[in-house]
Amino acid sequence: MAMEVATPAFAPITSPEINIVLAATAKKKASVETHKKNRIQVSNTKKPLFFYVNLAKRYIQQHNEVELSALGMAITTVVTISEILKNNGLATEKKVLTSTVGMKDETKGKMVQKAKIEIVLGKSAKFDSLVPPVTNGKTPEEVAKAETEAAVEVQEAAATEA
Fold it and tell me: E strands within the chain?
């Protein structure tokens, strides 16, 4: 006996109240998607503090801002990362959000409330003068040498064609 799988057909919604809710949900979903590329979810147990500091520097360099996020006991780590970046003149604080999130406790199996923090840091005016550009592991001298050699090869190739 073959089973039929029904695919949902979307009908136009006529109630303005529902449209408002859907618009807000769609807007929220879009904003979440844009923040994922520069969001760092910090953990106390997975990586050392300066791993997150250096990762945040790179995200600021690439995206001009970074969103640091943590739950529970990792909140102090996020605040420390933020303060290190601000005190070194690399970042400015844009936004701080605190909230509680309902989660299922793994040991007891019941719902518990966890504190959550999100800190958005922007690129400071001094950032580019303090942090060297990313060169894929090469020193600035190696990058300059490679660029010079490439330019010489182009000129030699042009000279042999002429």
Answer: 39-41, 65-71, 91-104, 111-123
CA distances 152 to 58, 99, 148, 149, 159, Å, are: 32, 58, 6, 5, 10
End-to-end CA distance of the chain: 76
What integer pLDDT is reported at residue 108 of this predicted model? 85
Instruction: Please give the structure tokens belonging to residue 26.
Output: 């769609």
The domain that holds 62 is classified in CATH as 3.30.110.20
Q: What is the value of pTM for the model shown?
A: 0.62
Query: Do residues 93 and 66 touch, judged by C-beta distance below 8 A?
Result: no
The answer as to whether 89 is a domain residue is yes
Dmax (CA) for the chain in angstroms is 79
